[in-house]
Model the fold of this input.
Amino acid sequence: MIEIATKEGWREHVDTAYERPAPVTSVELRAMSFGDRALYNQGRAQYSQAGAFVRTPQFEAFQRAVRDRVMLNAYRRVGKLGLILSGEPGQGKTTSLVEIGRAHERRRRDTGHPAAGPGMLPVVYVAVPAQCSAKALMHEFARFLGLPVLGRMTYGDLLEAVSNALRRCSTELVLVDDVHHLDLKYRQNVEASDMLKQLSERCGGTFVYAGIAVEGTGLLDGSRGGQIGKRFEVHVALPFPLISTAEKARWGDLLLAMESSLCLAEQRPGSILSAAPTLHALTGGEIGLLKDLLQFAALSAMDDGTEKLDSAAFERDLARRQTAATLHTSKPRRSRTPVSAA
Done:
């Protein structure tokens, strides 16, 4: 697994391209040796998991907003604009954040932009540790950049070293994941929030935060939050609804894209749409749960040789969950009243 929270790991992630395996028929699959088929199945699983990113309307809107701010901030000296991607777990926030950074860096490389030249770092990715202090968060930036951290270094020393490195490396995009760990009920997290503001003012990058229910952490409240709230636009990652015709069409487009990424030999394109309501009921419209569900189903189809998704299995799973939920709600509660001895 690639560690993307270091510059070496991030560069490897950006460099790695997962090619879609060449399509084969079921007959050709059965004719393969055990080893060749295992390798082919591994390639398919790897492509669907890491190589086939599904661009949803929410993602495209967020990516456009990031591009606009990178362009505008290049000409700003103060008051830089940023973005926050908020939402509950399972909405693909980290996946979207990382894909935006990867796409930005690859675009800079493809166009020969100076920010992607030798020794440059157009994108920096940092995940906020739990119960994070300002100095601990600065250590995470130093770790990504590969800066030496000496025991006698103060917070100010670290801030200066990291800011200088970001400027020298022409960093344009600073991705800060798990920002919900900066719960401002704790003093050390308030200091870390201040540090992010100071860092954004000292370097030229556009800051993009992602986290769980960021609106409830206090990051946007009070005098500190007031500045962030005015300069940072909040995008909320939501489950896919399934009420209107347009919503059903978007859910269908998502299913078709994921169906194609699975590379199953006997899966008839579009047949997944017959299970659209069932899949929505199983996942609640959450893209992360949907991806996991379909990938496990695809692995099962590869193992048993059917090479297609089993819609009946989805229906059985839903029926089991509904039955379990009914039993749970209808189960009588045990009385807490003591029984007198005869």
The longest helix spans residues 311-330. The mean pLDDT is 88.
